[in-house]
Design goal:
By secondary structure, the chain is an all-alpha fold. It has a single domain (11-87), classed as 434 Repressor (Amino-terminal Domain) (Orthogonal Bundle). Helices cover 61% and strands 0% of the residues. It contains five helices and no strands. The chain has helices at 12-21, 24-46, 51-58, 62-69, 78-87. Helix 3 (51-58) packs across helix 4 (62-69). The longest helix is centred in the middle third of the chain and has 23 residues, at 24-46. It is elongated, with a radius of gyration of 17 Å.
């Protein structure tokens, strides 16, 4: 027995599975938050910026920065992400598909 979808684009079957489970959007959002938190923490480490220093540069508290770096926190605003990206010399890019 063959599955016709096997010839599709890479990752298509997993996306189909998540869609069928009703978790595609939630899973994608979680993955994006985790990647952004990881990239921001990696940029801080690469530039030897401590959390205390990063919080000062963002003019916020250390606890606010911890929330920003928490991939499970879905209350982070785009403005905060963009400011954090600029602080480490990066840009935030988003797109609708």
């Amino acid at each position: 027995m063959t599955d016709e979808r096997v010839t599709g684009k890479p990752g298509q079957l997993f996306e189909d599975f998540l869609t069928e489970q009703g978790t595609y959007e939630e899973t994608t959002e979680t993955a994006v938050r985790r990647v952004l938190a990881f990239q921001l923490a990696a940029a801080m480490k690469e530039q030897h910026i401590s959390k205390v220093e990063m919080a000062k540069r963002l003019k916020t508290s250390r606890s606010q920065l911890d929330r920003l770096l928490d991939p499970d926190n879905n209350a982070v605003t785009l403005d905060t992400l963009a400011r954090a990206a600029r602080t480490v010399g990066r840009t935030l890019r988003l797109e609708l598909q």
